[in-house]
Amino acid sequence: MEQHRQLTVVITGASSGVGLQAAKALSQRKEWHVVMACRDLEKTKNAAQSLGMAPDSYSIIHLDVASLDSVREFVQKFRATGRSLDALVCNAAIYMPLIKEPLRSPEGFELTVATNHLGHFLLCNLFLEDLKKSSAKPRLIILGTVTHNPKELGGKIPPRPDLGELKGFAEGFQAPITMIDGKKFEPVKAYKDSKVCNVLTMRELHRRYHESTGITFSSLYPGCVATTALFRNHYPLFQKLFPLFQKYITGGFVSEELAGERVAEVVADPAYSESGMYWSWGNRQKKEGKSFVQEVSSEASDDDKAERLWELSAKLVGLA
Ligand SMILES: NC(=O)c1ccc[n+]([C@@H]2O[C@H](COP(=O)([O-])OP(=O)(O)OC[C@H]3O[C@@H](n4cnc5c(N)ncnc54)[C@H](OP(=O)(O)O)[C@@H]3O)[C@@H](O)[C@H]2O)c1
Fold first, then answer.
1. DSSP state of 253
2. Which one-letter DSSP state was computed for residue 30?
3. Which residues line ligand 1 (CB under 6 A)?
4. CA separation for the pair 320, 309 (Å, rounded)
5. DSSP 299
6. What is the pTM of this model?
7. Which residues of 8-47 are buried (b: 16+ CB within 10 A; e: fewer)?
8. Fewest CB within 10 A of the end CB: N or C in the chain?
9. What is the pLDDT of residue 156?
10. Mutate which of 20, 34, 39, 247 to test ligand 1's pocket (most atoms within 8 Å of Cβ)?
11. Percentage of residues in the chain with pLDDT exceeding 90?
């Protein structure tokens, strides 16, 4: 008898890189149906087809995660499919190291933080209701990165992340404000700050909702996936040398396929059912390819900051 796909996972930014490979890996597990939540439908369709993903194993729904209206529309469209929501992977992100002036989201927020943090923050909050209804053991996963953490080699390189007193958020995060700490615009720091927000959000979700809902909240660093389009806005020479540097010098390099498989494991495998964890396979730590729970940065483990970030983010996205 044909096996039924009963579980549904939504993956944001599944049109390329880690998200696409995670979609492929989960679509190969017969019990999972993958919803690819992407801003470019044609690109996503071509990407799924080029990887040979079975047509009944996935669907594509439009989501521009930088737009709060689009996030709300996406949730409605997903609900209209009648599917259960059993896992959510917040993966979409932008990294714009070379821009001199900030770009803005439709609501007027600095675009990197709007995409990587605020849109996902709203999505997580709206989808809590849906995850709660899952008859499986639901999971919510937010992609982290080593660069959020100045305790790690990859996080030591300046500019370091620092949300400060969240002054930029408290003052509305609209022009002329560009950074969460309210200071001068630094695009690399904006990315790192957004990734600190991702870890703080996961930890605060865990603190607020794990016990009452049973949802597993986790984050992961899948390794340095130096070939992805994340680096498309960097200098061409950097794009050429970075993978070689990661392969032969730091040893942190992982393929897009392996990174996607790691995400799929955190979504689906019993080994990752503990909530509030930040999973890693290491960079300089050599753990024979095995995952372990990694300590997050001091700022990302600050519970007071997590709560304050939550309250201010809720206000910015119109939840409070
Ligand atoms: N690459 C690494 O070394 C590395 C390491 C650690 C963690 N990560 C994390 O892994 C995740 C995926 O990164 P990646 O390396 O796979 O990069 P990527 O190939 O550039 O993928 C990013 C995805 O996000 C999508 N996206 C960007 N803005 C969006 C928006 N406004 N609405 C909807 N989708 C949007 C992109 O869509 P388009 O195709 O339409 O542009 C793309 O599908 C990120 O969270 C990143 O922080 C990456």
1. B
2. T
3. 12-13, 15-19, 38-40, 43, 63-66, 91-94, 115, 143, 145, 221-222, 224-226, 228-230
4. 12
5. G
6. 0.96
7. bbbbbbbbbbbbbbbbbbbbbbeebbbbbbbbeeeebeeb
8. N
9. 81
10. 39
11. 80
